[in-house]
């Protein structure tokens, strides 16, 4: 059975452009966050669950390489895959693709650590592990 | 025949929240802009057309009343209607509704003036008038 | 003795522009929020105090009229004054001025209601009243 | 004589926080952009110069490592240094430091390529080279 995968469709909004008419680099980190959120929703998780679990995923590193500009109205597909995880952390690798011309817009990676209310690293919540990570590993 | 109407569906992203866990007030102006953009797309217009026409819609006034908070993952419906227009300007009134509990989240209004390359008021581009305004007037 | 007043200096950043090269309308609500934050700091209050008091100011209405565009590098002065308050709410009126050419960039107004952890209206925290409101009323 | 250096002071605004009460990761890319802009201003350059030169710096890669969270009201110092450049590109390395507790908040790097109106790589504008790059190289 094919696993559900982490992917998200985004239509570039005019307020996400900079003066050069391209999506500003910082906005792509928002797109990656949106893709993670959409995948949580798909797996029956909610953003509020982090507060219920009292464990919060903090971005420890982010890396992006910009290949092709995105403009207002562009239809983008964000795809992500877990490439690595430990008891407390996980790494996602992404591709963003322009769905009309199939150009690769961006490759990127984010590394996340779960912390508790005192900002100390803590185990990945079990439900998050099962829904978000176990089903989404690179094969 | 029923006209196509200005409406847009938005899922609240986690990066749009403030520390109180609610969508920040400024973000709603983005949502209204997104709804206008989606309606342009629906009518076959593109954001780049403004540069082709060399006439640009500038927000002259904006007004919002916040009725009910929006949180991460909320599914919102933004509905807009043209309430007034002149040769160079138009006014849109909006409602944002939470699609799950049907609560009214926001009412708002934006007033737009077209300007030319010298920032002087200028006529609404004909194609924009026909596609965006004529079909979307309040009845 | 002249009271300390709510004013804040902002230099427009390039990432705050839209494709027309102007500060996007939503960004001005951020500027108004920044001005409120700077005034809190000036009066010895901190954003975290809201969590200590367990009372949070929610924006109930916002209104802006845009008079003159702002561009990258513009030096703006945001001035605010409390025009009204009740036991649970207050209203601020703003002017944003371009400090180089003295043009009026924006006039606006925000209305804020304090709510408690259950999102119910609640009294303005005493310390906030004394520092932020009592000293800053329109005369 | 000590060169003027690329550094920028930022006070974290409440609208830059996420629900965890920390500055969202994407916002730091804005801070780095602000630091570049402030340095341009210091050297007598303006954002509009890119349009005059018809050459535009595009972010080709960005990398950030988050060391310590930033919260509302934090006073941050962003420091940058050019670590490398070619005829058409340059690389900046950054540190963001909390000015009160001297903690290292972030290290990062951005790589920029100049493009022309057709999005083709093109030489660094001479004035930009002299003001922004020549004076700011790592020693």
What layout of secondary structure does this protein have?
Four copies of one chain form a homotetramer.
Chain A: E1 6-11, H1 25-42, H2 49-53, E2 56-66, E3 75-85, E4 89-98, E5 104-115, H3 126-133
Antiparallel strand pairs in A: 1-3, 2-5, 3-4, 4-5
Structural class of chain A: alpha+beta
Number of strands of chain A: 5
CATH superfamily of chain A: Hotdog Thioesterase
User: Looking at CATH, which topology of chain A would you report?
Assistant: Thiol Ester Dehydrase, Chain A
Q: Return the CATH class of chain A.
A: Alpha Beta
Largest interface: chains, residues each:
A-D, 24 and 25 residues
Whole-number count of domains of chain A? 1
Contiguous runs where pLDDT drops below 50 for at least 5 residues of chain A: none
Verbal overview:
The structure is a homotetramer of 139-residue chains. Chain A is α+β, with helices and mostly antiparallel strands and 139 residues long. Chain A has one domain: Thiol Ester Dehydrase, Chain A. Chain A has three helices and five strands. A five-stranded antiparallel beta sheet of chain A has the order 1-3-4-5-2. In chain A, a hairpin with a 3-residue loop joins strand 3 and strand 4. The longest helix of chain A has 18 residues. Chain A is elongated, with a radius of gyration of 16 Å. The two termini of chain A are 14 Å apart. The model of chain A has no long low-confidence stretch (mean pLDDT 93). At the A-D interface, helix 1 and strand 2 of A face helix 1 and strand 2 of D. Strand 2 of chain B pairs antiparallel with strand 2 of chain C.
